[in-house]
């Protein structure tokens, strides 16, 4: 799995060398809905998922601390 | 006389040389200070990382129910409600540095937790009935402080985090740090982060296991099993061994990579590695064995033991996001994650959100999320675990299941922040609702709201 991740990262890096988006072209990329993270108001939802589900991590949410035991 | 004249001439020369040295030093020092002044007067303009103080107020109301409470060994109500309030204040300390304080409280009432002691005299003891004991409600409080520093070209970002959280039976302290590097004209970003959490439990066992004959020698509760009629197997005598260690440590290492693929598309990959050590089970969650006769007080089955889980767990999560700005009205946000751990759980998470800008200030957020996981090696439903096993649990959060979540939200944004409360302008309001249903009896819903203010 780690090898796949590294391969994917390298491939993405290779693609990136083909296209460089200039600062003045980033109007759409900088739209708040394009952020590569959850919205702040979803913080408690993500925390609920980390308590009720076994899976944690890779989503910007908490990876430790607290028991989530209720 | 000649000797005196020579000595006087030598002294005069020394003085001259010394004056020359001092003069050269002064000229050099002046030139240096002047050149520095010159540099200061030609400062390069750089945009502040954060223009002004921002305050976010986040709140939520969460409600859940189900028939598989872990406190009552996999049988019983999972009813729980939770209300949270959190302030997140981000303060620019200068052009490059930002201090963020995140302080929140969460107050919950839980029917299942109340059944840590179901024999409170308030009614017939029953795993599907809430009790009124001390464990029926609690308050969780958390404070997290973060400090971040950005380089002049904004291509390097360092941050450090300290956090503390506490509730009645649990305390957690954490520290962490991260480094982010941007390059390729800020089209590419890589990051690494590390966190350590040092947690500790206050050990609370199911009431019937707290009796002195079961290893508990404090006399701080009124429960006396001899005052009750035991049905089923009347010779209730569990071989309960109290837990020796109450600490739990978590070490997390994360790597991130994000890339702008097109002026309308960007994506990211994340890898999190998490190592946990210590008490990873919950001391008040009961287990009922298949090879031990059942004993009851009223309608409540008495614990054969508490859940026992290994004191090590290693988790790996790999996730990716891909966001696409379709046009001025629609954006597509996608997420996928694969998770695995050495307790035998594999899981997949996939989500799709399509923000729809219906007006200048209003955006709708319909979303769907799918989650599935396999069971932990140590999980079995109520009355299915064996007393001969080393590890066992009936916590259905560790069982095999799939879940669907549907969400809908509305966002109001005023970039000019015209509406004011004191010195703060209201920049945005977000309200969202999510319905979460497993393919078991468990379901939950949450209403979240976020209010963002910026200081004038």
Summarize the structure.
The complex is a heterodimer of chains A (70) and B (456). Chain A is mostly helical and 70 residues long.
List the keywords.
heterodimer, A: 70 residues, mainly alpha, B: mainly beta, 2 helices, 10% helix
Structure report:
- With 70 residues, chain A is mainly α.
- Chain A has a domain at 34-60.
- Chain A contains two helices and no strands.
- Chain A has helices at 2-16, 43-52.
- Chain B is built from two helices and 24 strands.
- Chain B starts with a helix and ends with a strand.
- The chains are: A mainly alpha (70), B mainly beta (456).
- At the A-B interface, helix 1 and helix 2 of A face strand 1, strand 2, strand 5, strand 6 and strand 7 of B.
Please give the structural blueprint.
The complex is a heterodimer of chains A (70) and B (456).
Chain A: H1 2-16, H2 43-52
Chain B: H1 2-41, E1 54-65, E2 80-92, E3 97-110, H2 111-114, E4 137-150, E5 156-167, E6 170-183, E7 188-201, E8 230-232, E9 247-262, E10 265-278, E11 286-287, E12 295-297, E13 300-301, E14 305-306, E15 312-325, E16 331-341, E17 346-353, E18 356-357, E19 362-364, E20 367-373, E21 401-413, E22 420-421, E23 424-438, E24 443-455
Antiparallel strand pairs in B: 1-2, 1-24, 2-3, 3-4, 4-5, 5-6, 6-7, 7-9, 8-12, 9-10, 10-15, 11-14, 12-13, 15-16, 16-17, 17-20, 18-19, 19-21, 20-21, 21-23, 22-23, 23-24
Q: Which protein chains are joined by the largest interface, and how many residues does each one contribute?
A: A-B, 52 and 98 residues
Task: Kindly report the average pLDDT value of chain A.
Answer: 80
Range of strand content of chain A: under 5%
Number of helices of chain B: 2
């Amino acid at each position: 799995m780690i090898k796949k991740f590294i391969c994917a990262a390298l491939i993405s890096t290779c693609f990136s060398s083909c296209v460089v988006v200039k600062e003045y072209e980033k109007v759409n990329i900088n739209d708040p809905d394009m952020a590569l993270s959850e919205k702040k108001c979803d913080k408690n939802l993500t925390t609920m998922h980390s308590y009720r589900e076994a899976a944690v991590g890779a989503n910007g949410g908490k990876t430790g601390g607290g028991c989530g035991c209720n | 006389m000649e000797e005196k004249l020579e000595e006087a001439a030598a002294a005069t020369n020394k003085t001259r040389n010394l004056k020359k040295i001092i003069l050269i030093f002064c000229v050099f020092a002046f030139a240096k200070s002047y050149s520095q002044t010159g540099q200061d007067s030609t400062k390069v303009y750089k945009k502040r990382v954060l223009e002004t103080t921002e305050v976010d107020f986040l709140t939520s109301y969460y409600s859940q129910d189900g028939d598989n409470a872990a406190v009552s060994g996999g049988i019983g109500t999972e009813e729980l409600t939770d209300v949270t309030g959190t302030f997140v204040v981000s303060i620019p300390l200068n052009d490059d540095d930002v201090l963020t304080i995140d302080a929140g409280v969460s107050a919950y009432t839980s029917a299942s937790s109340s059944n840590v002691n179901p024999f409170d005299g308030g009614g017939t003891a029953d795993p599907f009935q809430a009790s009124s004991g001390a464990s029926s409600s609690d308050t969780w409080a958390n404070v997290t402080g973060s400090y971040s520093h950005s380089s002049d070209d904004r291509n390097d970002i360092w941050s450090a985090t300290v956090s503390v959280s506490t509730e009645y039976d649990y305390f957690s302290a954490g520290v962490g740090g991260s480094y982010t590097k941007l390059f390729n004209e800020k089209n590419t970003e890589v990051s690494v982060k590390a966190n350590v959490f040092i947690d500790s439990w206050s050990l609370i066992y199911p009431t019937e296991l707290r009796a002195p004959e079961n290893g508990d020698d404090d006399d701080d509760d009124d429960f006396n099993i001899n005052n009750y009629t035991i049905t089923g197997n009347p010779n209730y005598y569990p071989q309960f061994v109290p837990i020796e260690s109450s600490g739990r440590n978590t070490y997390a290492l994360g790597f991130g990579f994000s890339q702008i693929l097109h002026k309308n598309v960007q994506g990211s990959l994340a890898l999190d590695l998490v190592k946990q050590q210590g008490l990873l089970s919950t001391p008040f969650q009961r287990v009922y064995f298949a090879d031990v006769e059942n004993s009851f007080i009223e309608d409540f089955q008495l614990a054969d033991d508490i859940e026992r889980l290994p004191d090590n767990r290693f988790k790996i999560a790999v996730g990716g996001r891909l966001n696409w700005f379709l046009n001025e009205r629609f954006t597509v946000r996608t997420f996928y994650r694969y998770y695995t751990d050495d307790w035998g759980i594999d899981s997949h998470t996939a989500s799709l959100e399509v923000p729809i800008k219906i007006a200048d200030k209003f955006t709708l957020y319909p979303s769907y999320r799918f989650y599935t996981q396999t069971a932990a090696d140590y999980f079995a439903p109520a009355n299915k675990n064996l007393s001969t096993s080393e590890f066992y649990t009936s916590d259905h959060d560790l069982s095999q299941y799939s879940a669907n979540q549907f969400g809908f939200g509305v966002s109001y944004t005023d970039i000019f922040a015209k509406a004011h409360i004191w010195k703060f302008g209201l920049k945005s309001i977000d309200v969202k609702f999510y319905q979460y249903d497993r393919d078991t009896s468990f379901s939950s819903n949450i209403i979240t709201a976020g209010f963002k203010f910026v200081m004038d």
